[in-house]
Design brief:
elongated; 328 residues; 5-stranded antiparallel beta sheet; mainly beta; 4-stranded antiparallel beta sheet
């Protein structure tokens, strides 16, 4: 039954003291709860592998090992494997033209009729009956077509895979009845939501700038061809990004926010700006990074040279740092 059919949920099952219960009453209660759970799964989760169901096998092996796992199909039904399963690979030599044969390994939800009894009990004045079924999923090898775009050959199985009723666990390549390559789990799909990049941003309104002097051979105050000159010191500040809650080191971008105009008595208005870089020593972390800035300004006339040190006391202390981090 498709779980988007809400017909079974029109009635709530009730009991009263002294009521005579039949097996069908308890079966109906179990079915109600199970279908409600399937509806939840189908509505809020995507079909695929939730955890486990790893498939291992190396070149030359004639079997694969499937680890315990949990998965959901497109109807929200839970597919559970409770212990390791050893599964022989299809015993084929080649595709008839001397080349390998490719298969998907799929898993699907078992119907009650497919499960083996694990416990039976004698009834009162009635024959023995089954009270527990062993939870075992259904595995199926699905033959794939030749060529670069491999697709299931059987149209029925292809449709079941497309509808996510058969979930692909792995792909194998068989030659001479053995695995030619290790098992590939690339085709499988996760039931977990796709992990989108985590993006967060923030600002440091009062960064604490540390001044560093260039060595004599690094830079001079000579005007550049663009009519700019570099300030004889550079500055750094630590930026704390812990408020973003990053789990891994993101890719950071930063910019300076603040006034770029310096008013001088001798030269009037001078443009002050900076080249910025995110330090690699120390390297950025999930909790923050160090920002380096290299200040430059328009070349003042000779009369104003004495005032070029004023960015450190009048402009730079007013700058703020805005940042953004992208954690993939």
């Amino acid at each position: 039954m498709a779980t988007n059919d809400t017909t079974p949920f029109r009635e709530r099952i009730q009991f009263f003291n002294g009521e005579r219960l039949f097996a069908s009453d308890l079966q109906d209660l179990e079915a109600f709860n199970r279908q409600m759970r399937w509806l939840h799964n189908q509505s809020l989760h995507q079909p695929g592998i939730g955890t486990g169901f790893a498939v291992t096998g190396n070149a030359g092996d004639r079997q694969v090992v499937i680890s315990p796992g949990y998965a959901l199909d497109s109807l929200g039904r839970e597919i559970i494997l409770t212990q390791n399963e050893v599964l022989p690979i299809p015993p084929v030599a080649d595709n008839g033209a001397g080349a390998s044969v490719f298969y998907y390994l799929t898993v699907s939800y078992p119907n009650d009729a497919d499960l083996k009894p694990s416990e039976t009990r004698d009834g009162i004045c009635v024959p023995q009956g089954v009270v527990r079924l062993r939870e075992e999923p259904v595995f199926c090898w699905v033959l794939l077509s030749d060529g670069t775009q491999r697709q299931p050959v059987d149209p029925t199985l292809k449709d079941l895979i497309r509808k996510q009723l058969y979930l692909v666990l792995a792909q194998i390549e068989v030659f001479n009845c053995k695995l030619k390559q290790p098992v590939s789990m690339a085709p499988r799909r996760s039931a977990l939501p796709a992990k989108q990049p985590r993006i967060a941003c923030g600002a440091d309104p009062q960064p604490v700038w540390t001044k560093h002097d260039f060595s004599a051979n690094d830079h001079t105050l000579q005007p550049s061809m663009a009519g700019l000159q570099l300030f004889p010191s550079w500055f750094s500040t630590p930026i704390n990004t812990s408020s973003a809650g990053f789990h891994a080191t993101p890719v950071y971008e930063a910019r300076i926010v603040g006034d770029r105009i310096l008013q001088t008595s001798a030269a009037g208005r001078i443009l002050v700006d900076a080249l910025i870089s995110i330090s690699t020593n120390p390297a950025p972390t999930a909790q923050g990074f160090t920002l380096n800035i290299y200040v430059f300004m328009t070349v003042p006339p000779q009369a104003a040279v004495a005032e070029i040190a004023t960015p450190t006391t009048r402009v730079i202390p007013k700058w703020q740092v805005s940042w953004i981090g992208i954690e993939s």
